[in-house]
Amino acid sequence: MSVYHGDNAEFFRLALVSISNQTLLPDEIVLVVDGPVNNDINKVIDDFTKITIPFRVIRLSHNCGHAIARQTGLDAVNFDYVALMDSDDISEPDRFKNQIEFLYNNPGIDVLGGQIEEFIGNVSNVVGKRVVPLENSEIKEYMKGRCPMNLMTVVFKKSSVLKVGGFVDWFCEEDYYLWIRMALAEMEFSNLPHSLVKVRVGSEMYARRGGMKYFKSEEGIQRYMLQHHLISFPRYLYNVTGRFVIQVLMPNWLRGFVFRTLFRK
After folding, report:
1. Residue 220 shares a structural domain with residue 139
2. 164 and 224 part of one domain
3. What is the pTM of this model?
4. Is the domain of 154 the same as that of 233?
5. H-helix or E-strand containing 158?
């Protein structure tokens, strides 16, 4: 898990609470503080160093971004099964229990995720659900068009992720880039059918998914898949054209409507 100066301290606290209240507790929590943070966030960190779960805090001297923060944390963990968690989301109480049981029964799986419910304000105000495919073959087919894993739900084998180079910086797409490299290495994916994490959303989420910089990052991902023969040229053109319309031409309010109606349940 990582936190940075732009995070909300109360949301961060609730995210940590959802980890410390799991029916299957983690053996350790590794928190990467991505650059200087305010007193409120530091107070939350200080409070959680007193819990019974080993709580290790790694502080970076300046804000390095998600990819470097996640890789820093990954390098530090002591176990091969690693769960990711965002700093403002809520993990369901049985999340780790369900995932670890599945992985023990399916040791060939390298990455396991699940579904998410998106909420605004109160956790009970669910406004959408991002549904991703369950089986390895379906996930790899879905990957040709969209990111097939909900990052904040995943548990993966540290050894498998390190084998393909770990988290590499790619603007807003370091997770998609990682899954593609793992697919090229013929690693196995799976998703559980039920919701594992409740995710905070708002208008700012759709703003982050727009603009030329975001589009260029997504186009680069599509080009990478084309160059590595995961998609054909017609599929590349289809993917890139759709993204240009949604991410560059649409205003935020319309982009939000499209995401909620076409890409969510």
Report:
1. no
2. no
3. 0.89
4. no
5. helix 158-163
